[in-house]
Design brief:
InterPro entries: AlpA (IPR010260). By secondary structure, the protein is α+β, with helices and mostly antiparallel strands. It has helices at about 15-25, 30-35, 55-75; strands spanning about 15, 45-50, 50-55. It is built from 3 helices and 3 strands; from the N terminus they run βααββα. A 3-stranded antiparallel β-sheet has the order 1-3-2. The chain is elongated.
Length: about 80
């Protein structure tokens, strides 16, 4: 019986809040501030009553946009 990899079914992966804070290098409280204040910040995805995840692809896109903004500011 073979196993089915989630990455082959779902584009990208889901990550939990702890992984999000590690990847972005910010605190949990800063994540919640940005969810409400920064429109391009990855929004939470509720999978169940006590299960909230974030799209890894959206996190990658957000990090890329932060880098692009930095590069634009340096060029100006």
């Amino acid at each position: 019986m073979g196993t089915l990899e989630i990455s082959s079914v779902v584009p990208g992966n889901f990550i939990k809040l702890l992984e999000l804070t590690k990847r972005l290098g910010i605190s949990k409280s800063e994540v919640f501030r940005r969810i409400h204040a920064v429109p391009e910040f990855p929004q939470p995805i509720r999978l169940g009553p006590r299960c909230v995840v974030y799209s890894s692809a959206e996190v990658d896109a957000y990090m890329a946009s932060c880098i692009a903004k930095r590069d634009q500011q340096r060029a100006a």
